[in-house]
């Protein structure tokens, strides 16, 4: 079997501010194989972006502190790498598409210069040659090359996101982290950008970590899915496992919050309550105050990780080795 | 129905600002010095007789270096330097605060009106302000002092006029920002009058930058008066003013440097504490930065 | 671009007219008879009356002002009461001194302030940051004339490294330049730090780092150009403050510049000279503000798109 391109084990990250310690990640485990598209799904504030930034070692510090855990990226331990080696990996072995294209581009620099920088940093070529490659890249993401010497403010939101994607792809990375790449865009543009990403992913044959809260996007392009809640993976499995053999009550809640197109009379069943305050997480299973199946034990002990197969697990007190195979514990149809 | 509401947060926004300010050590030092200065200035007449000790010449005791009797020494006319510096704080703080109060009221009103009504009102006000902004403040004060004579009233007038555009600009831009906010539109939609909207919504929200500007502006004014007096265009003898005292000491720089040193220290302490306080206020009112 | 500059230059005309009108009115309500001032104490009433006639001092104020403005168009700022020569000549003779002083102060301020502000921001909350900002705080709190006196006593009179007065060589401008520039340096360093801090946490800085660019390069190539925009504003305003401060500095160091000319003319009630000096300072300040706005557009393409 191949070696994973990304292997995160027990990652714990805290943001320490004057107002308290925010537990952003609480022992996150995540493995991505070469060529795999992995969805990381959860609500805002669950620690999705922190996980992505952690891989690039770009968590703002202060206030962010990696307390525990390892991140192995393409065989190298990100925490132990020198800054210089890390720089040569960023944008080349791994790159990231950020959530908000409006603010992710430098307003006083032409877009082609911002893309060309990637070539200049990693490929030791002249500026002219880099611009040439940039123009090809612009065409690839659907922007006419001659618009390269314009500034970000002259571009629409969707165009800007294409530029951000071009920056991320320019280094031909082995792993692409896409942090809600379409959230800030109009719905029609979302579909275009997503289609383009699917296309490019196939062409470049890279692994991708798709960070999103949108299960539609997950269904569209992901091979495997991790559901994150309060900085921890609560359920992980193949796309089919998560969608058709849902085990965790939180995952169930995410699905039940979606409108049902075939039965529009059916009432939405949103998850009750709000994301817990990450500076003051509930004891035991962090989901227990919102859980429909809560038991006494849930607030007292951390839930065990129970496997349904080699690659599908849930962390929940409802399950043991036997009933996880059968399912039927939760009400999802 | 019981209309008594409990606010979801226990304490109001002013308390929140005060809490952040109290946590800022340098701002607290600044505040402490400012309060100390005000207390000293207000209580000065309890310790010194103005006519006997501050103004009256005592040639027999002239140019005494700091000693037990005169802690900071005496000046060329035999007057106690400490007493004069303490009395000097009365002048500086008085001129500083009066000037800023005047500029705040006039400039603030003009700016708020311009920002709120926009259009031609705004245009006329701001073009007029442009004229005053084009003259560096100190120069304008020098002109007025030169033409009308340098007494405290003229100085306050001159400095206030040159401070007006600053306040007008800040209030105007705050008001414009606030005006576009949705809750203003909401109150307009429910039929609130212009005056009511300005008083209840616009002014409170524009206050943060103004408070900071006010604090820092008092510092600027005090520095400017000292400069004018140093040039002989500000407050003149025998009134004890820091800049004038510093200038008096120039003749004795080589032998009695303390005569210029101590008034300078008094100025720096005052300006420094106001700046510390102003910076602290800005951070407390706008916690985004820091 | 040129259209914009022309528009701005045209707009300067009413502003400058407003300035002269205000200053002219203020100066003319000043007590004292200019004719008497020109002729001196021994002049006969007849002679004074004749000169008043010649100067048109009995005309209404606005007529006199109109005459003054007409002169301005021809570059005529009137006749000095004291020297009896054209005001413009007196001012031009003093421009170099004030120019050298302001230039040395600006250079000292900008060259120290911007690196200091960047360093403080990048090393936020460290000893270096604390020390830099403490120096800057002292800088904005210290009166120019007091710092000038300190420098004068220590470096000119005690150590004799620099001359204490005069303006005949570059050495004469070192101490005044420091005294005048220190305050501006402090202001510029503070704004550079705070705008740098604001810029460093922007998303595009993270984007630049995610490309694998070394942090130092991110700071100079991505952060600095963005942080410079507020810095340029403050620098422009500081040059206005420098002009006013030059009056104090020239007084402390006995430099024969425009600032000294103003003070001397005020003491001698030489109104045309005072008026002329204020006008020159105001004009300079306005032109600097225009340059600042053009510089903005140079740095920020969004502004460029808006105006040009």
CATH homology-level superfamily of one domain in chain C: MetI-like
What does the oligomeric state look like here?
heterotrimer
Q: What share of the residues of chain C does DSSP label as strand, in percent?
A: under 5%
In CATH, what is the class of one domain in chain C?
Mainly Alpha
- Provide the succession of SSEs of chain B: HHHHHHHHHHH
CATH topology of chain B: MetI-like fold
Structural class, from secondary structure content of chain C?
mainly alpha
- The CATH topology of one domain in chain C corresponds to MetI-like fold
- How many structural domains of chain B? 1
Shape category of chain B: elongated
> At CATH's second level, what is the architecture of chain B?
Orthogonal Bundle
Distance between the termini of chain C: 5 Å
Number of helices of chain C: 13
β-strand number of chain B = 0
Poorly predicted segments of chain C: none
Measured as a percent range, the helix fraction of chain B is: over 70%
Query: Which CATH top level class of chain B fits?
Result: Mainly Alpha
């Amino acid at each position: 079997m191949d070696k994973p391109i990304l292997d995160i084990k027990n990652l714990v990250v805290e943001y320490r501010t004057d107002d308290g310690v925010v537990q952003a990640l609480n022992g996150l485990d995540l493995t991505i194989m070469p060529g795999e598209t992995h969805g990381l799904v959860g609500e805002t504030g669950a620690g999705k972006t922190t996980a992505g930034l952690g891989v690039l070692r770009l968590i703002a510090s202060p206030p962010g502190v990696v307390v525990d855990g390892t991140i192995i990226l393409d065989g190298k331990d990100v925490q132990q790498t020198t800054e210089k080696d890390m720089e040569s990996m960023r944008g080349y072995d791994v790159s990231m598409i950020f959530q908000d294209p409006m603010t992710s581009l430098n307003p006083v620099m032409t877009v082609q210069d911002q893309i060309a920088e990637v070539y200049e940093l990693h490929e030791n070529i002249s500026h002219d040659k880099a611009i040439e490659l940039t123009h090809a890249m612009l065409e690839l993401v659907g922007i006419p090359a001659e618009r390269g010497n314009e500034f970000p403010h002259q571009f629409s939101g969707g165009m800007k996101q294409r530029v951000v994607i071009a920056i991320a792809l320019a280094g031909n990375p082995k792993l692409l982290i896409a942090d809600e790449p379409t959230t800030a865009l109009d719905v029609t543009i979302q579909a275009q950008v997503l289609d383009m990403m699917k296309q490019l992913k196939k062409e470049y044959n890279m692994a991708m970590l798709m960070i999103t809260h949108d299960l539609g996007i997950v269904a569209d392009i992901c091979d495997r899915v991790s559901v994150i809640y309060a900085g921890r993976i609560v359920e992980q499995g193949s796309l089919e496992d998560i969608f058709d053999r849902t085990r965790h009550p939180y995952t169930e809640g995410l699905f039940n919050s979606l409108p049902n197109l075939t039965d529009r009379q059916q009432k939405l069943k949103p998850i009750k309550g709000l994301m817990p305050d990450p500076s003051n997480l509930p004891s035991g299973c962090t989901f227990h105050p919102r859980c429909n199946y809560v038991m006494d034990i849930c607030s007292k002990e951390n839930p065990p990780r129970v496997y349904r197969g080699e690659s599908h697990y849930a962390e929940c007190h409802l399950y043991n080795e036997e009933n996880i195979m059968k399912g039927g514990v939760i009400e999802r149809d | 129905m019981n209309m008594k509401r409990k606010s979801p947060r226990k304490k109001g926004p002013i308390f929140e600002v005060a809490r952040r300010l109290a946590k800022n050590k340098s701002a607290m030092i600044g505040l402490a010095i400012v309060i100390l200065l005000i207390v000293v200035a207000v209580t000065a007449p309890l310790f010194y007789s103005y006519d006997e000790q501050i103004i009256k010449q005592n040639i027999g005791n002239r140019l005494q270096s700091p000693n037990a009797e005169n802690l900071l020494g005496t000046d060329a006319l035999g007057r106690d330097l400490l007493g004069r510096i303490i009395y000097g704080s009365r002048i500086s703080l008085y001129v500083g605060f009066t000037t800023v109060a005047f500029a705040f009221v006039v400039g603030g009103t003009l700016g708020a009106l311009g920002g709120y009504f926009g259009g031609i009102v705004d245009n006329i006000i701001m073009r007029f302000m442009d004229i005053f902004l084009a003259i560096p403040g100190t120069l304008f004060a020098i002109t007025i002092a030169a033409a009308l004579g340098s007494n405290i009233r003229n100085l306050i007038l001159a400095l206030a006029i040159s401070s007006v555009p600053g306040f007008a600009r800040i209030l105007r831009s705050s008001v414009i920002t606030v005006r576009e906010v949705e809750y203003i539109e909401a109150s307009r939609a429910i039929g609130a009058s212009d005056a009511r909207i300005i008083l209840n919504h616009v002014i409170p929200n524009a206050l943060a930058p103004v408070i900071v500007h006010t604090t820092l502006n008092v510092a600027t004014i005090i520095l400017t008066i000292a400069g004018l007096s140093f040039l002989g265009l500000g407050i003149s003898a025998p009134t004890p003013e820091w800049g004038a005292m510093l200038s008096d000491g120039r003749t004795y720089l080589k032998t009695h440097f303390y005569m210029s040193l101590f008034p300078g220290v008094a100025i720096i302490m005052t300006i420094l504490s106001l700046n510390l306080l102003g910076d602290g206020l800005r951070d407390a009112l706008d916690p985004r930065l820091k | 671009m040129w259209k914009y500059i022309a528009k701005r230059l045209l707009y300067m005309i009413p502003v400058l007219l407003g300035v002269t009108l205000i200053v002219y009115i203020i100066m003319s309500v000043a007590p004292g008879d200019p004719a008497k001032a020109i002729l001196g104490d021994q002049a006969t009433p007849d002679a004074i009356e004749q000169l008043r006639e010649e100067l048109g001092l009995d005309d209404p104020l606005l007529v006199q002002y109109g005459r003054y403005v007409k002169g301005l168009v021809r570059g005529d700022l009137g006749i000095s009461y004291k020297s009896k020569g054209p005001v413009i000549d007196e001012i031009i003779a003093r421009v170099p001194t004030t120019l050298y002083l302001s230039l040395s102060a600006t250079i000292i301020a900008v060259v120290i302030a911007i690196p200091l502000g960047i360093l403080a921001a990048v090393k936020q909350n460290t000893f270096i940051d604390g020390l830099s900002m403490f120096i800057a705080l002292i800088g904005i709190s210290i009166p120019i004339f007091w710092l000038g006196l300190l420098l004068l006593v220590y470096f000119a009179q005690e150590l004799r490294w620099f001359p204490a007065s005069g303006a005949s060589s570059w050495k004469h401008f070192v101490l005044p330049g420091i005294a005048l520039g220190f305050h501006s340096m402090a202001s510029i360093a503070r704004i550079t730090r705070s705008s740098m801090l604001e810029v460093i946490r922007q998303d595009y800085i993270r984007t630049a780092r995610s490309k694998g660019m070394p942090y130092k390069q991110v700071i100079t190539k991505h952060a600095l150009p963005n942080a410079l925009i507020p810095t340029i504003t403050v620098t422009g305003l500081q040059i206005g403050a420098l002009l006013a401060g030059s009056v104090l500095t020239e007084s402390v160091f006995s430099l024969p510049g425009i600032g000294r000319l103003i003070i001397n003319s005020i003491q001698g009630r030489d109104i045309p000279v005072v008026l002329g000096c204020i006008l020159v300072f105001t004009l300079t300040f306005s032109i600097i503000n225009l340059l600042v706005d053009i510089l903005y557009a140079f740095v920020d393409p969004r502004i460029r798109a808006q105006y040009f």
